[in-house]
Amino acid sequence: MTYTVKEIFYTLQGEGANTGRAAVFCRFAGCNLWSGVERDRTNAVCQFCDTDFVWNSTMDAGKFNSPVDLARAVADVWPQQVGGKPLVVCTGGEPLLQLDSDLISAFHAKGFEVAVETNGTLVPPEGIDWLCVSPKVDAELVITNGDELKLVFPQEGVSPQSYENLAFSNFYLQPMDGPRREEYTQLAIEYCKANPRWRLSIQVHKIIGIR
User: Fold this and answer.
1) Which of these is catalytic: 26, 28, 31, 90?
2) CA 121 to CA 199: how far, in whole Å?
3) Which of 127, 161, 168, 210 is the most buried (most CB within 10 A)?
4) Which residues hold S-adenosyl-L-methionine (predicted)?
């Protein structure tokens, strides 16, 4: 299988349960809920994505012909001679369009824990160490258990309460980014205070100015 990757970079996880943890981000190109092209946004299932995940043929890198090649590229970005368990965050776009058990095994062989951030519409392969699902109101959710459910909030037509019967270890509300972010943050704060099962997830990386 050929893997198409938008970018690979080393940073700190900026949101959710692993906020502040060092990680290599492997951002896969492509998504099943939006093309990534701005003119298509208004007709997309997910209309609020804030990430550039579009790959094009003019890029010098981004195509990997084997899981070993991609795992090696990720390992090369992790700083040498540092402590702690290496973490790779597979994100997108939608990483489960490409992530498979062979690639997970290749990451494990390089010593990495494998975290995935997915919209929850595709069945995940075996072997993922940390599964974070971010559901979208108009997309069918097929993943109903995992480590973390992170709901972008608010989304018209859905209440966080409708997800509380799912088998996730952690439930997060993340204020929707954009011109009304301040207002949405206050709404999320009030919801979490009134419903303590939910925790607030802030996109810390945007606040402190890292990727």
Assistant:
1) 31
2) 23
3) 168
4) 48-50, 93, 134-136, 174-177
63 φ, ψ (degrees, to nearest 5): -110, 125
HSE of 150 in the Cβ direction (CA atoms, 13 Å)?
24
Give the residue numbers of the binding site for [4Fe-4S] cluster: 31, 46, 49
Contact 136, 44 (CB under 8 A): no
Sorted by sequence, the CB contacts under 8 Å of residue 52 that are 6+ apart come out as 6, 36
User: Could you tell me the CA-to-CA distances from 103 to 91, 114, 117, 128 in Å, in that order?
Assistant: 14, 10, 16, 10
Among 64, 119, 110, 63, CA closest to 88: 110
- Where is the binding site, in residues? 12-14, 27, 31, 46, 48-51, 91, 93, 134-136, 174-177
Spell out the residues 6+ positions from residue 109 whose beta carbon is closer than 8 angstroms to its own. 71
pTM beyond 0.85 = yes
Q: Which residues contact 108 (CB under 8 A, 6 or more apart)?
A: 114, 127
Q: May I ask the CATH class of domain 3-208?
A: alpha beta
> What residue spans define the domains of the chain?
3-208
The torsion of the CA quartet 28, 32, 36, 37, rounded to 10 degrees, works out to: 140
